[in-house]
Design goal:
Layout lengths: L6 H22 L6 H36 L3 E6 L1 H12 L8 E6 L5 H28 L3 H21 L7 H8 L1 H23 L1
Antiparallel strand pairs: 1-2
Helix pairs in contact: 1-2, 1-3, 2-4, 2-5, 4-5, 4-6, 4-7, 5-7, 6-7
Length: about 200
Amino acid sequence: MRVSTSGAEKKDLALAWLALTVGFTLLMTDLSQTGGDGIDALAANFVVAFVTAGAGFLLHELAHKVVAQRRGYWAEFRADYEMLALTVASGALGFLFAAPGAVEVRGRRIDPRTNGIIALAGPATNVVLFAVFAPLALVSSGGFLAFVASFGAFINSFLAAFNLIPFGPLDGRKVLDWDARVFAVSFVVCAALAVYSFVTFLV
């Protein structure tokens, strides 16, 4: 089945990407800075957040969508506009509550295996992005590229591990309902990558 999209989905994805980027930018920036240095830091952090957190979120959600549509389901991302506002506001307040929306899947009944595979596609995509950013961070000698790569490695490993928590609507619950062994291996790997990224790139 050909992957399709709609104008409504494109708009919601763009708004969610922007909200996450702004939220992470505000979280990463010392808003007490004034003058040129403050503006430069804000601009640099916006670029970093756009390329790493924003892209990590977008590709995570698109992975759910593509896998679902390839299996014959209708699937599109829909933003939660109240949560978009909360994402931006929380970033300004010094923490980030990022739940800007989700991919809706409709059609015939989804069996646990298919539902688990669709769910696992998101964290797996973040692991692939980690594998792109981490080597760049390790070989970079410093500067802006190293900052982008280090944050990209950390945030994507964090997104993978967080979404595999087996709670509520998170991906981990669906993977666990499908196969406990697949869940255990996936969660341990992603949690280990998150801890490694934190220790290696942030501490």
